[in-house]
């Protein structure tokens, strides 16, 4: 049984191994600013939920992966697609992504992943 801390460390390692990010950070809630050269990723713990799966109680941990990309000129979203593919190849039971913010220079996407333990 993996803990939330292990899931976070494993996710940082998976994203670091993609070879597309300049840095992969641990993000503490929404207070930490993502600083660094794009493309950049940060992993945050988003909580857990206890579910019943066929009469068995399981805990589903949720992670949010923030991916910040440069949006000046022709925006290259391939790092986002690489990150989604990498997370999909982990034991995640659910993976979704959406755009979080955009400004004149960067776009930030959020990938949400759920892991049952």
TrEMBL record:
**Stated name of the protein:** Uncharacterized protein
